[in-house]
Design a protein that fits this description.
With about 170 residues, the protein is an alpha/beta fold. It has one domain: Rossmann fold (3-Layer(aba) Sandwich), CATH 3.40.50. About 30% of the residues lie in helices and about 20% in strands. The protein has a seven-stranded mixed sheet with strand order 1-7-6-2-5-4-3. A hairpin with a 5-residue loop joins strand 3 and strand 4. Helix 3 crosses helix 4. Bound molecules: adenosine-5'-diphosphate and magnesium ion. Magnesium ion binds next to helix 4.
């Protein structure tokens, strides 16, 4: 199961340091245009500073939009040193880091509706920061992954430009 109760307690934990989270969020505009993959990685790294153990981040966008690129930048900033690529042959991977990082790719699925919840249990948990690459057509529903915290949407904006929206 998705261990929703763990997320409820993680969410309660957020309330203990509201000022810190607000400060981090204030540094990031809601919507940013990046001009290169390096820009998007740097934005991911900046975003990572606002994350805490137990957070789940849904990253939505078309194939090639830059979801993995954004997650890679965030992972680097979180201390992940191994290569960060889309999990293609498995639904997810887990990277060692000071706070472990999970990386799930649901792009080829229809949200979680057709996935076996136990498959995700290996990657979700209150001990980790979790990134979920999310199919653009799936419902934009954080509740599906258990009281998750943040949403990022990336869209093509011509050439190498991308529009990145962060909630
Ligand atoms: N501004 C940009 N942001 C992110 N990726 C970009 C950008 N411009 C070009 N790219 C390229 O687009 C591709 C994005 O791939 P990837 O991050 O794997 O996308 P997704 O995970 O959304 O399928 C990479 O080849 C990357 O180099
Ligand atoms: Mg990807």
């Amino acid at each position: 199961m998705l261990r929703r109760e763990n997320y409820d307690s993680a969410a309660r934990g957020h309330e203990t340091r509201p000022e810190k989270r607000r400060d981090c969020a204030r540094q990031l505009p809601d919507s940013v245009q990046t001009a290169s993959a390096a820009d998007t990685e740097a934005l991911g790294a900046q975003f990572a500073a606002s994350l805490r153990r137990g957070d789940v981040v849904l990253v939505a966008g078309e194939l090639g939009a830059g979801k993995t690129t954004f997650v890679r930048g965030a992972c680097r900033a979180l201390g992940v040193t191994v290569p960060v690529t889309s999990p293609t042959f498995t639904i997810g991977q887990r990277y060692p880091a000071p706070v472990p990082v999970s990386h799930i790719d649901l792009y080829r699925t229809d949200g979680l509706a057709h996935e076996e919840p136990d498959l995700l249990a290996d990657y979700l948990g209150p001990d980790a920061i979790v990134f979920v690459e999310w199919p653009p057509a799936a419902p934009w529903d954080l509740a599906e992954v258990g009281g998750a915290a943040r949403r990022v949407r990336i869209a093509h904006a011509g050439g190498d430009r991308r529009l990145v929206e962060i909630d």
